Request: fold
Amino acid sequence: MSDVILSEVDGHVGIVRLNRPDVLNALSLELMKKLVAQLEAYDDDPNIYAILLSGSEKVFAAGADITDMADASTFEMYNRNQFARWERIKKISKPIVAAVSGYALGGGCELAMHCDIIIASETAKFGQPEINIGVMPGAGGTQRLTRAVGKAVAMDVVLTGRFLSAREALSAGLVSRVVPKENFYDEALRIAQELAKKPPLALRLAKESVLKAHEMSLSDGLEYERKLFYMLFATEDQKEGMKAFIEKRRPEFKGK
Reply:
């Protein structure tokens, strides 16, 4: 049996590819276990500054593996606690770029929304069609989608099960950029490599601060932002970055 995920390192970028093409990259329990473990390994690796998560040109992930849960009881689902793994993805501190082409549905859409920058090919389709199989999103679909696109679009997508095209997703604020299908992976990798050239500590704190914007009032968020801003003046990268700016040269960041 082939590995359900593939991983490699390109410079300071850790790359993970979903690899279940025969079932449209359905997010089985095995795949999620290995995916979370690999993401955490990259997060712990001091030589990795950014992460790229991709599916194939045909599909990012068409949802959860329904065979894992079709006959499960309420107690079995509760005891399985499968969403604890999603909470671990939420806690990854390094920026994650998602390269999405084709279907990103159900858990696949939720997985993309756990990433920080979504690069979508023109063929990408996003949706939460769980309503069609008698359930509803459970890994953040009703919450993250609503925060990304607003109540009106989220209600439409979640209650009808319809898909958003890449252009609709861009217009609604769900994805960061839309590119031609033949360029989606290369563009996502380019962006991940661009992030990897930034000061790693500032990158991580900036991500943390943006995520807090969903959870705090404006006044609390501004106070939190300022504290992180001040913290960065204790880093060598801040000194190097500002010195390089003054000297009109490229900075050499070391993550210290």
